[in-house]
Amino acid sequence: MSDHRPTVEGTAGPSRRTFMGYVIAGATLATGAEMTLGTERADAVVPTPPGPAEILDLNDLLTLAAAPTANLITVSIGTDGRASFALPRAEVGQGIITSTTMMIAEELELPMDRIDVTLAPARPELMFNQLTGGSNTTISTYTPIRVAAALAKQQLLEAAAIVLGDSVDALVAKAGVVTGPSGQSVGYGDLTVKAAVSDTLRARVTLKTRTEHAVIGTPQGRTDARDAVTGAKKFAMDLDVADALPTMVARPPTHNGEPVLLRNRAEVLEMPGVTDVAKIPTGIAVRARTFGQCIDAIRVMDIEWTGGPLAGESDETILAKVKRAEVPMIVPKVPLLAQQVDAEFTFRFRSNSSLEPNCAIADVRADSAEIWGSMKSPVVAQEEIAVELGLPVSKVRVHVTEGGGSFGRKLFHDAALEAARISRTMGKPVRLMWHRVDEPRQGRLHPLATSRVRATHLLGEVLSFEQRHTSVQTDFGHGLGEIITAQAAKLPVGGNLTFAQTIFTLTQEVPYNFGAVTQLLSETDDRFNTGSMRNIYSPDVRVASELVIDELARRMRKDPVAFRRKFLRSGAARAALDKVAEVGEWGRDLPKGVAQGVAIHKEYKGVTACLVEIDTRPETVGRTVRNGVTGPRVTKAVFAVDAGLVINPTGLEAQMLGGVMDGIALALTSSCHFEEGHFLEASWDNYFYTRQWNVPPELTVEIMPSDSGQPGGAGEAGVAASFAAVACAYARATGRMPTEFPINHADELAFEPKPFTPSVVQSPTDGLDHTY
């Protein structure tokens, strides 16, 4: 631990902080770190006191859970002078391998191209230190990684002092070389054996101050950019695992239906390339020489299915069940003298699949198993697969591969578990890939929900602000639930809260002085495959809140930006709001049907603000794009983010750009329609995420200056404010507050649903006909 009370750099207190780390016993140099947590005061603010998430939020909880095993994360130096680090998180396109490389380079004084950051396999001893979620990776690893790197440099300097015959203070480490005052030098590779120890030692190290940073805070391109654009980057399906043949699954026509019988098994086994067919709980698996042969086999299968628990259900029946589960407000509907705003919003099912199909490789033997896949909670995956196979955890090896996106999806290891089941049943290695049609229909979805807001105001002041969010149940069986259980004593909330309610409470803030503020979650209906989609509850909650805030401003005859400025409790939030208003030219003259919208979001140790302009004029809404869904178009977006200390501005900007695309999609076009027990959407051609013709021609990301010495979260920070800003702009452009999202969900379907039996469609042969 540090030798003084932790302080945030840039505030009162020592400008340099010392930390304890470990020099690990071994033949070459390896170092680890203890975890030291910074603290921030949570002073009460009148009239709205801080909520639970302002005292201890989900990020704090994840960081606390990771702290006990931080010293097991080690930086090693090889005799070739290269540094290596196995990151216990999942890289799914968010850029954490690059930012981690930057942190090591900063403290170790080693060029980035001489640092190898890989992904750690499942390590049960890391416990809660191997879960990627909640925008927590950089927050929780920032100090341990830097301590381990700084300690490695310190050990190398001490070894160099002996070799060069100088004192440590006289030596300079730069670019992997230690140089003495006489000009003599020695490379890291020549020192790593001399710097090693035979017994693990505990040692003190001093980290660089922010003013000394030469790498952290500078724009850097992705370390894997060349591999990504040349096709050299390796994902799960690119791995060369002996005899792991392509495998796919015929899935039920209804959500969570189950197979009863494959009637023509012999016929399928005789098809070209097919080697094995097996019944598993989720469908009928087929293994063949090519994925095309798997698809051909699925298309001829004659399968008897059960309807499952959702047969006959639809959007309307599920929404009715959610509404029945809504809990009442506390403030009376007609308060004495004061006026009230009441609003209710519906958010439809959405898919959070990534462009990379759900996939995994499994090789299950009688006494062992080996799994490869992109998993954000690999320890939980390892444990559940071991139980499924009846093997000790030590006999199940789980390799974490880089993933082509996640957005929360890869917190679940459905593909890895399914691949293990198939491999065990067939007795052979399998290369499982879901068909793109499978994901929206049988994969994980963001649950349908309603959000109700009641705000009471009198004489220009808001006296109360209540929000009741009611949702189809979100599954948190991917590791977050276990962390909550383990850290329960530290939570600023008590009582009988569920995992979901705890996460809701630890992520939601109302950043305004609105008197008595309450936000509560209720859940119902556990029959769906659900997951914590990017930013979990915040996008929906923020949209409902910010639309009501605009309505409060309208009723009080206040400008929406001025109204927010008056009530915001955070100086950082006001600064971000001012920035987007300035850059976006808030209040400028616009044609009828074109309007601006603005929104604020506070979460993940930071704050975001977004201003958008939307065009709802008939000529825009009715524009024609071949095979495309058009509708209102966001023509301009300005996004401001205060994420504390920024490791890589280029990476942060990319994260925010992606978040804005998410926000536009959630507001305008992206949802799944549920009818007769099945989802109609299938693949990306009819799940309408933001397309190029819906992207704003003007899009600016402003990174706000911050004197914080600690990084904030970025992976999910771009979604909520952008979604809410689009919704508010749409309301101002049309003169009516939207109450259902996306706004086009109730429109006539813009596509013809693909068949439900067979579960996959014929592979296309007319690709050139769809090019421009």
In DSSP terms, counting alpha (H) and pi (I) runs of 4 or more, how many helices?
Answer: 20
CATH superfamily of the largest domain: Aldehyde oxidase/xanthine dehydrogenase, molybdopterin binding domain
What structural category characterises the helix and strand content? alpha+beta
The largest pleated sheet is described as: 7 strands, mixed
| Integer tally of domains | 3
Which strand-content bin applies to the residues? Answer: 15-25%
Distance between the termini: 60 Å
Q: How much helicity do the residues have? A: 25-40%
- At the fold tier of CATH, the topology name of the largest domain is Aldehyde Oxidoreductase, domain 4
Which architecture of the largest domain does the CATH hierarchy give at level 2? 2-Layer Sandwich
How is the largest sheet built, in terms of strand order? 12-13-10-20-17-18-19
Identify low-pLDDT runs. Answer: 1-15, 37-46
Shape: globular
Total strands: 31
> Which CATH class of the largest domain is shown?
Alpha Beta
Radius of gyration: 27 Å
Rounded mean pLDDT is 92
Task: Provide an overview of this structure.
The chain is α+β, with helices and mostly antiparallel strands. The protein folds into three domains: 18-221, Aldehyde Oxidoreductase, domain 4; 236-309 and 358-433, Aldehyde Oxidoreductase, domain 4 (2-Layer Sandwich); 315-351 and 444-741, Aldehyde Oxidoreductase, domain 4, CATH 3.30.365.10. The strands form eight sheets. It has a seven-stranded mixed beta sheet, sandwiched between helices. Strands 5-4-3-2-1-9 form a six-stranded mixed beta sheet. The longest helix is centred in the first third of the chain and has 28 residues, at 137-164. Mean pLDDT is 92; it is low at 1-15 and 37-46.
